[in-house]
Amino acid sequence: MDISVVAVGREDDSPVEEPLRVAVLADRLGYREVWAGEGPTWDSFVLATAIGAATGQATLTAGPVPVSVRDPLTIVRGAASTAAVTGRPVGVALGTSSKRVVEGVHGRPRTRPAAALAESAAAVRALMDSRPGEPIVPGSGFPRRLPPPGGMVTVAAFGERAVAAAVEHADRMLLDLVSPEQVRMLRARMLAAAERAGRTPPRLAAWLPAAVDPEPETLTQVLRSVAGYLTVPGYSDMFVEAGFAAVVELAAKGADPDTLLRALPPEAADTVALVGDVGTVRARIDAYAEAGLDEIALVPATAGDPAGERTLTALRPA
Hints:
By secondary structure, the protein is an alpha/beta fold.
């Protein structure tokens, strides 16, 4: 099982520079890859460049970038620019994001998300592989001057069409906040799509919240991330099956995040996160590996554990 680290700006009262602290610590502890998450606060390519300047060896992946708000050239140009400045391989992750982010934050329509993801993934794959001297895009007349960014193409996927796009164009398929049971189901979906397409399946990774020996405020931060998924199709069913139907029903009725947080029992974190003492967390990692996950990207909780130091130190590579 490969383990990487996610440095992402949280949309709460945590320090805005916290992703940099997480990334620097992860690099110092020997984690081989750091994800620079995209969000309302941080531009992922700027964050990845800052991480590259502050660290010594970690490979960088920017995103997932919402494909409805950035065109393929902008995405690959960002990765190539970051790679040129940092001297480090830079990959890109693509996703559809949510209506709340695409329309509510960017003011762009989130229409045909699965088709937009497939179209963007195809174009990004081609651009990632082009060489200096070739047209920056076919027929443009502008030559490409920067070398390829050198990193992987990752596609965040859940539904059938997104999985097909990942199989067709990605080196890695990304899941977010999933249980081992969902990993098993989605891996089967990915393998079936690869067989239909006659392609080698991509690697399978998942972003998972992580907190070793959590303080009460640490656990609250993890549960806050869980609350945001209670109304998402596919996830809501998972939480119902796990015994949290009352909270899912509350979310469906439009309860605000603080109400949902108060209603969520601590056990809800055990469904989709790595929480507990180090032995419990390592056993949980083994369960994800047995379910078919190739890589876990740790999203370390930082409330009560600045930069996620307790968690990242406990789970550092051997």
